[in-house]
Amino acid sequence: MLYPSVDRLKKEIDSKYSLVSLASKRARQMQEEEGTERLHKYVSYKYVGKALEEVAAGVLTKVSQDESTVYEDEI
Q: Where, by residue number, does the polypeptide cross the bilayer (predicted)?
């Protein structure tokens, strides 16, 4: 059984693509910068699982992006 469940995550983030993108970016941040945990206790020991737990807890949310901004990876 997966924790947190996809149904619970979909209540917080409406799109599966946005959820995957958000969780992967947060997991990378946690991997590169130790000590950036936002919850007191995690069930998962992997970074992606921890990021998904933060989404389920409502601590990690999607931020709307300015459409005029061009990022380096979009060029």
A: none
